[in-house]
Design a protein that fits this description.
Blueprint: H1 8-16, H2 22-30, H3 42-52, H4 65-80, E1 84-85, E2 91-93, E3 102-108, E4 119-125, H5 144-164, E5 170-176, H6 184-195, E6 200-206, E7 219-221, H7 229-237, E8 242-243, H8 246-250, H9 259-266, E9 270-274, H10 296-315
Helix pairs in contact: 3-5, 5-10, 6-9, 7-10
Length: 325
């Protein structure tokens, strides 16, 4: 997550402390949760996240050798799962960063001749903040929660769609660089997409989902009141998957991750899902944000529970997720 200077004091404290019409029937039909038999494997979640947050990648700072290794890893993953590049290659060069830096972008074409012209974006940022400059025993900010966890979940969803072909709409898979530098990767990409008249339906951005919350819902959404996305996801899963986190609204997290660049450019429902609630993880932008602290069963469950929702988003005959007026 882009660095939140105003949150640091808070995080420090957390360390311490009848008759229906045809139309009505159609609406009810589209509201039924989809049954998904596909199973997300804990072992695959673990292996993927372990490498992406490993010391070998040296904290994945944009423009470094460490993030280059991460980029190759993500390219290989997409290629292995037969997900095509959206551009000529998987690499989308940032236009707003001096050193060579790349978003990794793949596309899974929709199966419906008309709906495939519309896009759902599934995204997460794969960069982090790199190495500590002061001398200390551990200098690597591994960024397991921030945001290797989100990248891992998006990758698992990408594999699901690649294998099942369960998407009538096309799905853009995006792993952003430059998020920690000021949302640079997403800002760069949306400029290119706008010039292409990219037909965006909605974006789900996954941000910091490495540990669970002690709440009666699985995750929260940024900008809860800006659209009906939270309500629709819950409708699609048939569970209390998404809830409202007051701290999110208080600190306006909607504006702090890569969903905001897409919202600004397209004015469509573009929001982030997270399980970092300022109480359950003490190591935001800290060298102790490591793989060993990640809850693999939780990340697996999060991804599994979202599959009916992202499937429904990708197949609904109309665009049911809309901005609130």
């Amino acid at each position: 997550m882009k660095k939140l200077y105003f949150l640091l004091p808070l995080i420090f404290l957390a360390c311490k402390s009848g008759t229906s019409t045809t139309k009505d029937n159609e609406t009810k039909e589209t509201s039924k949760p989809i049954e998904v038999s596909y199973k997300v494997k804990e072992s695959e979640i673990s292996d993927f996240l372990k490498y992406l947050s490993s010391d070998e990648l040296e904290g994945r700072e944009t423009g470094t050798k460490g993030i280059e290794k991460a980029a190759v890893f993500l390219e290989d993953f997409l290629k292995k799962n037969k997900i095509k590049p959206y551009f000529k290659t998987y690499r989308d060069t940032l236009t707003n960063f001096e050193s060579p830096a790349f978003n990794i972008v793949g596309v899974i074409e929709g199966t419906d001749p008309q709906l495939k012209k519309e896009f759902v974006v599934l995204s997460a940022h794969y960069d982090h903040i790199g190495l500590e400059k002061k001398e200390q025993a551990d200098k690597i900010n591994n960024g397991a929660n921030d945001d290797a966890s989100g990248v891992t979940s998006v990758a698992a969803m990408a594999k699901y769609f690649s294998e099942t072909k369960a998407n009538k709409r096309s799905i853009l898979i995006v792993f952003f660089a430059g998020e920690e530098k000021g949302l640079l990767g997403s800002k760069s990409l949306v400029e290119k997409l706008k010039k292409q008249n990219f037909n965006l339906y909605t974006q789900l951005n996954i941000e910091m989902i490495g540990v669970p919350m002690k709440r009666d819902y699985l995750a929260y959404i940024t900008g809860f009141d800006k659209s009906n996305m939270a309500q629709k996801i819950n409708e699609y899963t048939g569970k209390n998957t998404i809830g409202f986190l007051p701290k999110e609204a208080e600190y306006q997290l909607f504006y702090r991750s890569d969903n905001y660049s897409f919202f600004q450019a397209f004015g469509k429902p573009c929001q982030s899902l997270s399980t970092f609630d300022f109480e359950n993880f003490d190591f935001y932008h800290h060298v102790s944000d490591e793989f060993k602290l990640m809850d693999i069963p939780h990340i697996t469950r999060f991804t599994q529970e979202l599959l009916p929702a992202v499937t429904k988003i990708a197949v609904s005959p109309t665009q049911e997720i809309t901005m609130n007026k």
